[in-house]
Amino acid sequence: MSALKLCLVGVGNMGGAMLAGWLEAGRDPKSITVIDPQPPQPMADMMQKFGVDLRVSAEGVSAPDVLLVAVKPQIMGAVLEGLTSLVNAENVLVSVAAGTTIAQLAAPFSRVSPRIIRAMPNTPAQVQQGITVCVANGGVSNAQCDAVSDLLAAIGQVAWINDEKLMDAVTGVSGSGPAYVFHLAEALAQAGVSAGLPVELSAQLAQATVSGAGALMAQSDLSPTQLRENVTSPNGTTQAALEVLMAADGFPKLMERAVAAAAQRSEELSKG
User: Fewest CB atoms within 10 A around its CB: which of 35, 78, 192, 263?
Assistant: First the structure.
């Protein structure tokens, strides 16, 4: 991977997290070119410190081995139009924009039958604890998939799928999923207040409980089901709460509806 020439377009939250991860892992800064006309100042300072080549446009930039575009979906089309000189029949274009299909990503580069990987990370990538799901078009080689996996591992776990249609469900589970967890912490804190706890204490308890349980699950070899069962004593307090949450119209059905709604919206957005 260290020999690859990489061009990163956009160093906002996601692109910046990836760049920081690469540099922290010891990737050669001279192998990286960044294109961003207005990078956040902390990112500009970091790039200057490490000697990363920062450009305001693709003008004068030679085609890289991997072109990774990390811009918002709303401006993806305009950005891709300015990158036509960087895409050829041999390199690979990677997008981390939600709701932008492989066909949409390929449209500006149809003259060269581009190799494209569509990737869906999530916001815990900002602390290198995310998960990114990838799907490639037919031209991408196994070596390119491996190289992109290595790059994306800087922000967390990487998984691959073969059917792009599954990306809508991926969006509903992991792409939007962090918001569900944050809302769980909100709801748990409010429930504590309703039960009589002071607001600040209840918020502290809820946030520490959610983050701690997540850390335990990440570090344990046990399944979420087994971890839940381990903390549930027969006829105890946790069982009483779970009988409410796991009722026929409870949390599982509500989550199923939530994920379905997110997946449906993702499909609608990808169709424009």
Answer: 78
> Rounded to two decimals, what is the model's pTM?
0.92
Domains 6-164 and 175-270 are alike in CATH topology: no
pLDDT of 272 higher than 80: no
CATH number of 6-164: 3.40.50.720
- Distance between CA 15 and CA 39 in Å, rounded? 10
Backbone angles phi, psi at 132, to 5 degrees: -115, 130
Mean pLDDT over 118-137 rounds to 95
Angle, vertex CA 266, rays to CA 143 and CA 107, nearest 5: 55
Q: What is the pLDDT of residue 271?
A: 80
Domain 175-270 fold is ProC C-terminal domain-like fold (1.10.3730)
Whether the pLDDT of residue 2 is over 70: the answer is no
Torsions phi, psi for 210 (to 5 deg): -65, -50
Alpha-carbon distance 180 to 8, whole Å? 30
